[in-house]
Design goal:
1 helix; 42 residues; alpha+beta; single chain; 31% helix
Length: 42
Amino acid sequence: MAFSLHHRDPFDRLLIAQAVLEHIPILTADEQFRRYKAEVLW
């Protein structure tokens, strides 16, 4: 699965990928996370 480079931080992209693949929400105030299909709380 390839992700767009909306977020340039590789560790954050890893967190996003894990959240999407495991269908778990991610807690962050970073607005860039909302550009992905991950469920974002906050």
